[in-house]
Amino acid sequence: NPTYPVARQTNVITLRTLYMSKAAAKTQVEFEYDGPSMKTEVPGPRSKELTKQLGEIQNVGAINFFCNYEESRGNYLVDVDGNRMLDYTHLLYPYWLSAFVNRPALGIMPPENFPEKLAESLLSVAPSGMSRVQTMACGSCSNENAYKAMFIWYRNKERGHNNPSDEDMSSCMINQSPGCPDFSILSFMGGFHGRTMGCLATTHSKAIHKLDVPSFDWPIAPFPKLKYPLEEFTRENAQEEARCLEEVEDLIVQWRQKGRPVAGIVIEPIQAEGGDNHATPDFFKKLRNIARKHGSAFHVDEVQTGGGATGKFWAHEHWGMDDPADIVSFSKKMLTGGYYHKDELQAYRIFNTWMGDPSKNLFLAEVLNVIRRENLLEEVTRSGKTLLQGLYQLQDQYPNLLSSARGQGTFCAIDIRDDATRNSILLKARDKGVLLGGCGDRSIRFRPALVFKEYHVHMFLNVFSDVLAEHN
Amino acid sequence: NPTYPVARQTNVITLRTLYMSKAAAKTQVEFEYDGPSMKTEVPGPRSKELTKQLGEIQNVGAINFFCNYEESRGNYLVDVDGNRMLDYTHLLYPYWLSAFVNRPALGIMPPENFPEKLAESLLSVAPSGMSRVQTMACGSCSNENAYKAMFIWYRNKERGHNNPSDEDMSSCMINQSPGCPDFSILSFMGGFHGRTMGCLATTHSKAIHKLDVPSFDWPIAPFPKLKYPLEEFTRENAQEEARCLEEVEDLIVQWRQKGRPVAGIVIEPIQAEGGDNHATPDFFKKLRNIARKHGSAFHVDEVQTGGGATGKFWAHEHWGMDDPADIVSFSKKMLTGGYYHKDELQAYRIFNTWMGDPSKNLFLAEVLNVIRRENLLEEVTRSGKTLLQGLYQLQDQYPNLLSSARGQGTFCAIDIRDDATRNSILLKARDKGVLLGGCGDRSIRFRPALVFKEYHVHMFLNVFSDVLAEHN
């Protein structure tokens, strides 16, 4: 048990006879302070300073003050200015049990080191042009809130950045426009962006994800179906990409005409769940321009591709653009969910109780240190090249079985003759001690950790080669 | 660094000259095994046994095998049968960094002690009639997935539990019915169920939560506006509740007629965010019967009320029913999000990568131990009674300032003359070291921790009394 903290001057409590006479015997005093103790106004100078710091990074509109969770105990919350308050807002975690159980309500009362840890972790790998990040608990919440940020941004533009009308405020309470406008997000067939209901309306990889769940009438564009290796089919691929981009523009116009304007476009740099479908940097460049031309936000979903597996920290860095996106969402390898965004897409109304979990930032800072110290992105590039070369060789060796080997870094995939053969190969490989996963209709995807070295690749290619021989 | 594990028999790797010659020098060998090692088929007997155990509690359709995360390292995943596999599915966490960083993909590869820890934690406090629980990362995800479970359940009934048609499968991919049916969830004005887009369509507490976000055309019923103390206004209150229930039935019929049948009804036992609005057990009993009569699922959202603050572990236990709900969702005080559900509402398609975080179950088991050992629910009942009596006294003393004191356990609230006065009281109380929160238009809510004792109540009432005197 922690030692009983000496009660400091309690400058506010004047016990009156009325209640004094009823006071129960104290128990568990060792966990608690004796009463409130106020040193400054709230928020005090330290809280104000930290709010200013955090305001450079994310929304601080809902923050009351910063907490010192180490000093907080029992029914008392201690802030970073040393104010000790009797806590009647205890919506959240019973932090009296242990400092570790404590999961602060980041949206209202973040811990003191939160801005510093954000800078060391998420901000240190921020995509080009983005200095703001909003943390979230999972990938679906990250995309869901990114969509909300795009809707709010788009509607603010429509309103000329004026305050919402009374009609806006009253109609939204009953789910009706103009308060809840009929905006849409344009997504791509084959895309996967999560399973909550907003995300799900933009997910189109497998029927089983979507079946029986009500959805939105939002436009869905074709994602280019390219031939691999990309560099051998440049002409055909460019035609296919042009076809898809034309369709995107048509859909934007159609949906505007039917009163459901496209507030944002969401896309993965590599369609992962949908079968590891790649497109060229030229496609993404033109798509980004189409978004800008039509006033739609451009949201790059890096939940699967972010974190280094493609050999760059963000897959969209391969496009070589100065201004690749308005929003970049992440999760998985980043340990925490969230999204980076342009300043103008800041929405003070994006909020929930937890807003992620700051303990994940501590871990992420360590992970990033290891990635840098061990040059893991170079390692990924090297291993990925060896892996893809090996897949090309096996594809030449088994042309009836394998096709379309493709990849960036170790983020690789290959197509198998058919679904049944694919599943048999996955099981046989597992029996030989290699865990592989499927994606799309008949692809196998490779998703090793960043510490996957060339000798692991060789080990894998040997097993894979044995398994393929059994299926030829 | 962990000691280098002795490589066990590697029964699958036959290194061939082709790749052998290219093998890179190993680094970081201290973190890794030398190769795969298979002891049994996968899943092995231990994995099968654990899958069976977990199958009694939640969905196991997507589980491959159970993992031994302590033994897993580097690029190798070790399962509970001792099989060591080269991991090419590393979508998730770099578990090589530290066992603690490891956040298992519960949906696919849960850790060995997961069923046991679920039984010790969440199942040990399961609501009446419910033996199944699905964990989730946050409150919004919990409700969002509960809605999906209700939609899937409802559609399965419609289909006579037959397989989905080809038309179902193809239409859902483009967000259209019948695959994405026009089902609705009936919610109540003043309710708060979260901020993702499905949840948000059932949230009606503040315009600012909903403004600018597209929504669904779902029915919204009035929540009873009762007079407090409830026992002094039984006749008027019963009339008001009857009016609301009649409206609920009308809405269900209307929405069925316009082709948007009500798959589920969602309600809070006490509308929290909306202003601490109470209803009587009789109201909830009749509402539950209406749901049953019309074939809609009945979802009780205990995200705010669950965990003991009302003096019972679940607020709906105050209704005294044998079969109070089909789904009960939770988060906040429970440390993890999720929902309990009836067997028939099990949906194998409810899934995401993380499905919550098992470390939270460990903490919850400890929290529950403390709640039992310290009889905290009795403590809450005692402190709550003292708090409410004190609020009644102050309300008599300041009739122009205070009204409608109400509460269950320490889950109490009181109305203030107007919004401006309420906010002034909140600030003044904070300056005196008492943290209070607002809810609804002009209410103050009390949400102390479960360890809030009677003497804390007296301390608070003194401060509150001083603050009120300044505003009279």
TrEMBL record, chains A, B:
This is 4-aminobutyrate aminotransferase, mitochondrial. InterPro entries: 4NH2But_aminotransferase_euk, Aminotrans_3, Aminotrans_3_PPA_site, PyrdxlP-dep_Trfase, PyrdxlP-dep_Trfase_major, PyrdxlP-dep_Trfase_small. GO terms for biological process: gamma-aminobutyric acid catabolic process. Its EC number is 2.6.1.19, 2.6.1.22. It holds the Pfam family Aminotran_3. The keyword Transferase applies. It comes from the Eukaryota. Its cofactor is pyridoxal 5'-phosphate. It catalyses: (S)-3-amino-2-methylpropanoate + 2-oxoglutarate = 2-methyl-3-oxopropanoate + L-glutamate; 4-aminobutanoate + 2-oxoglutarate = succinate semialdehyde + L-glutamate.
